[in-house]
Amino acid sequence: MDFLQINVQRVVGCGEAKDVICGIVDKLRADTLIMGSHGYGFIKRALLGSVSDYCAKHVKCPMVIVKHGEEI
């Protein structure tokens, strides 16, 4: 039976989140970027910007955005 090998790295950076994340993804030559989303509405996202939206448009690898779930 073949097992899939997964290498997960946690990196701490300093600066504007979108720039740090995109830079580290490029530096590590990541295969996939997985990020969470706060689930802000259109207005808040338009005013504040969205780190996950920015990264989706700028990283060179596939990306998965995990939406914020509802409280139970």
Describe this structure in words.
By secondary structure, the protein is an alpha+beta fold. Helix content is 38%, strand content 14%. The protein has a two-stranded parallel ribbon. The N and C termini lie far apart (38 Å).
Structural class: alpha+beta
Order of helices and strands: HEHHE
Unreliable spans are none
Q: In angstroms, what is the radius of gyration? A: 14 Å
Give the rounded overall mean pLDDT: 85
Beta-strand fraction estimate: 5-15%
Helix proportion: 25-40%
The biggest beta sheet reads: 2 strands, parallel
Lateral arrangement of strands in the main beta sheet: 1-2
Report, as a whole number of angstroms, the end-to-end distance: 38 Å
Q: Count of DSSP E strands?
A: 2
**What shape does the CA trace take?**
globular
Q: How are the secondary structure elements laid out?
A:
Layout: H1 17-28, E1 33-37, H2 42-48, H3 51-58, E2 63-67
Parallel strand pairs: 1-2
Helix pairs in contact: 1-3
Summary keywords:
globular; alpha+beta; two-stranded parallel ribbon; 72 residues; 2 strands
Short characterization:
By secondary structure, this protein is α+β, with helices and mostly antiparallel strands. Helices cover about 40% and strands about 15% of the residues. It has helices at about 15-30, 40-50, 50-60, and strands spanning about 35, 65.
